[in-house]
Amino acid sequence: MASTPYSSPPDEPEPRPKGFAAELRDAVSVRAVVLVLGVFALQLGFVLSYMGAFHAPAPHRIPVAVAPPGARQPATWPAP
Predict the structure, then answer these.
(1) What is the pLDDT of residues 8-49, one digit of tens each?
(2) Is 35 helix (H, G, I), strand (E, B) or coil?
(3) Structurally, how many domains does the chain consist of?
(4) 6 falls within a domain
(5) What value, to the nearest 5°, has the Cα angle with vertex 59 and ends 55 and 60?
(6) Of 18, 57, 66, 72, which is the most exposed, with the fewest CB atoms less than 10 Å away?
(7) Which residues contact 26 (CB under 8 A, 6 or more apart)?
């Protein structure tokens, strides 16, 4: 009885090629998909908070004083 070790038995059907979606489902686990979606949600939160904080920067309740050009404050430290 001489049979080659790499030949398939004649009663098994030939494996059909899978489609892209089936190959993707086999390659990627549910845990990986959930982790990636969680990271994207966290990034979206950071982006939205940054945009909300800096979308229209304007000074609020800052006192402003106007002085004439020749006015100078006295020196607080003695000149060297």
Answers:
(1) 666 777 777 789 988 988 999 999 999 999 999 999 999 999
(2) helix
(3) 1
(4) no
(5) 105
(6) 66
(7) 18
